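Record type: monomer structure entry
Structure origin: computed from sequence
Chain ID: A
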Amino acid sequence: MDVTPERFVAIDWSGAQSSAEQRRRIVIADWHRGEISVSAGRTRAETAAWLIEQSRRTPAMVVGLDFSFSFPEWFVRECGATRIEDFWKIAASQSESWLGSCHPPFWGRPAKPCPADHRSRGYRLCEQKESIGWNPKSTFQIGGAGAIGTGSLRGMQTLLDLRRNGFSIWPFDTVALPCIFEIYPRSFTGVINKSSRNARAVYLEEHLARVAPEAAIAMARDSEDAFDALCSVVGLVHQRQECAQLRQAQDTITLLEGAIFPGRVITGASAIY
């Protein structure tokens, strides 16, 4: 990208069906000119509309979304897509049918166990490469602990909307601001029992108390979703040089499967400004 980002946004996403649950679970952490805020209360559609509005106010913006932007190449091609936008359109139209039936290769709902070939066919190339510090979840998992597939399927319509409204989406597009990255919060936090309020409180006091306001710290202390969003936005700001250096993928697999922003565990967060 030719312009230095002025604003970083990290969003803890949700595949919840009800509007009330979306407003509770979707959390936005926003860093703008040294100030951090954390907020909830928006649906997926409202979050997309907010991002579009904010990008018009501050075009030099980087956004991190924590859901999978695609599936393994074989599945994308099996659906008849040769470009990522074509697959997003297919996913947007078929997602509720896939979620409702949970036919293989999807799994995780009651009486829908993990397929025997899960290890060989269930992951994208970028997930296979990630082997230090965390174990990736398959986007085909749409039920059970840690399932990311539901939020991902219901997020692909948002990617279409954002792309049509001027966002570039890495690694599929020529990188230009405003830009969207797929993020994985665990890559910024490292090993922590995020479901424990006490563990979150200790982590926040140790790593983020000097860079985030008390209101944001309090939300992250009380909510795992807010915790992920806050840690992710601090991580993105801390790696802003890496953000600026990312380029569009050139290989056909990554152009269909996508890639995860190469986050690093937060260290020295007090120096991000």
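Annotation 1: The radius of gyration is 18 Å.
Annotation 2: The mean pLDDT is 92.
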